[in-house]
Amino acid sequence: MVSSITSRAISAGDRVDEFDLIRRYFAPLAAAPGADQLRDDVAEIAPGLIATTDAIVEGVHFLPDDPIDTIAQKLVRVNVSDIIAKGGQPEAALLALVWPKARPHAQLGTFAEALGRDLGAWGASLMGGDTTATDGPLTLALTLTGRVGPRGPVRRSGARAGDDVWVSGDIGDGWLGLQAARGRLDWLADDMRSFLLSRYRTPEPPPLAFAGMLAAYASAAVDVSDGLVADAGHIAAQSAVRLIIRAPEAPLSSPARACLASSRIALEDLLTGGDDYQTLFTAPVSARPLVHNAHRIGEVTEGAGVIVHDGSGRPMTMETTGFRHF
Predict the structure, then answer these.
(1) DSSP letter at 157?
(2) Distances from the Cα of 262 to the Cαs of 86, 165, 207, 232, 266, in angstroms?
């Protein structure tokens, strides 16, 4: 699921959990076994063939003045991260483009060129879609298919007590990049701000080769879009286990560490901010010598939910675990 930079005002009485909404209204429509009752980020629409859809909306998932080529790249990568997290290789894409009448048509060429280039870089190509105009914001949706091996997609539901918890790459850079775009990190060095801004605009999911390792050794996996803690909760819920995360072991970039050292940013912000598009996964202890390009940050135990430990081993109290879509 794609995380967001804003949320509309909703009264406490009207607050709806996204996943309760899905269970109530849409899961009853998903009768095919490959839909997995809509409990995961992908559907297996035929043996070995998976599909995902993510949408991004101006003012919600990207800023109105973000460069149009980076918007195209972000659209591709928020979907690629879902396919890779399931152990798949991207294949074909369908685009739904809702273009604002007030946005210059000259930008369409730049958007299309960037879209095609980035799809190709991830091994996919555009196969079709739909376009229309609107008086509202730029709205984009991509449906992306991928191929998985004989085990099928790596679901959220396979974690077992005793497994290790791993994450593929740095956490918090996307959220920090949004803060930079909003002018909230002006005290940070220019090169660090530029780096973080690039991570917000053009996320860097794990490389394609990472999917093969996941397919071979991961017991459960999810892409980190709503926040590390929130997405760990999805594995915990679907696998009926507890995930213990050791906060100091979460991988952080040099700019993120500089932000923490300033005491103006809290580690909780980085663990819950979202927009990372890394892969969080579990794997048996026996797989430790075989897991590569990932960081071990915790373990799976009996129980429920997610517990995050600080540097002293004490549970951290968090106001939120990640972004809420509704």
Answers:
(1) T
(2) 37, 29, 32, 27, 9
Q: How far apart are the first and last CA of the chain?
A: 12
Q: What's this model's pTM, rounded to 2 decimal places?
A: 0.92
Residue 3: the pLDDT is: 54
In whole angstroms, what is the distance from residue 320 CA to residue 322 CA?
6
Residues with Cβ < 8 Å from 65, sequence gap 6 or more? none
Tokens of 8: 């509309």
Helices then strands, counting H and E runs in the chain, come out as: 9, 11
The superfamily in CATH containing domain 164-309 is PurM-like C-terminal domain (3.90.650.10)
Dist. CA 166–CA 279, nearest whole Å: 8
Q: For 12-147, CATH number? A: 3.30.1330.10
DSSP three-state, residue 254: helix
Condensed to tens digits (0 to 9), the pLDDT of residues 258-271 reads 999 999 999 999 99
Q: Using an 8 Å Cβ cutoff, are 144 and 93 in contact?
A: yes
Euclidean distance between CA atoms 23 and 270, whole angstroms: 29
Q: Let me know the angle formed at the C-alpha of 278 by 319 and 39, rounded to the nearest 5 degrees.
A: 75
Residue 324 scores a pLDDT above 60: no
Q: Which amino acid is at 294?
A: A
DSSP letters, 187-202, are TS-HHHHHHHHHHHHS
Spatial contact of 147 and 91, defined as CB atoms under 8 Å apart: yes
Q: How far is CA 243 from CA 24, 160, 167, in A?
A: 26, 10, 13
Domain limits, the chain:
12-147, 164-309
Residue burial 65-91, b: 16+ Cβ < 10 Å; e: rest: ebebbbbbbbbbbbbbbbbbbbbbbbb
Three-class DSSP category at 135? coil
